[in-house]
Amino acid sequence: MPLNIPVLAVRQEWAHLIATSYKIDEHRLYPAPIKYIGKDIAIYASLTAPKKEETQAIKDFFKVNYSKGRAERWDFEPTPRGYIVAVATLKNSRRVSREEFNSSYLTHANPLSWYVPGKSHLWRLCNIRPLYRLDNLIKFKFSGSMVWSSIPAETLRAQGVGL
Questions:
Q1: Looking at domain 4-158, what is its CATH homologous superfamily?
Q2: What is the rounded distance in angstroms from the CA atom of residue 34 to the CA atom of residue 46?
């Protein structure tokens, strides 16, 4: 059992989509670190707010793919930043073509304009365990690179996350 779990910074509202299992692919412009493949990672809802057009892409995602009522309720759901909101297993990472990126929109929920030829990778997440009740979130001060940090595994287990 590892002493520390890597923490991946994901901008809110996408962290919320991961915590609710709507988003199972994370889009990055580089492959996932090999040392994390098959391992648990914590998902941190970063303090960076999405831009208006990015939030609109999420609303459009719900309107197209889910019930109208669900899309309208999105504005009223809590979207705290600065918390660990889920733990997931990083299953794999693969570079994708524009066609794959477009056709996998239902699994990553990112604006199609984010695709970069030759650089876009989708990191597949599985075994998602949310902490997405306000009384269960773990406040976290992110340190390290802008993408990765770590948290003691015991802190997650104390909140009932099975590791």
A1: Hypothetical protein. (2.30.130.30)
A2: 23
Closest CA to 124 of 89, 85, 161: 89
What is the pTM assigned to this prediction? 0.86
Which whole-number Å values give the CA distances from 40 to 65, 91, 92, 98, in the listed order?
A: 28, 9, 12, 28
What's the mean pLDDT in 26-54?
91
What does DSSP assign to residue 119? T
Report yes or no: 19 and 43 within 8 Å, Cβ to Cβ.
yes
pLDDT(71) > 50? no
Kindly provide the b/e burial profile for residues 45-77, where b requires at least 16 CB atoms within 10 angstroms of the residue's own CB.
Answer: bbeeebeeebbebbeebbeeeeeeeebeebeee
User: Alpha-carbon distance 155 to 87, whole Å?
Assistant: 12
pLDDT tens-place string over residues 80-95: 889 898 999 999 999 9
Whether 46 and 142 have beta carbons less than 8 Å apart is answered as yes
Higher-pLDDT residue of 11, 50: 11
Residue 72: per-residue pLDDT: 47
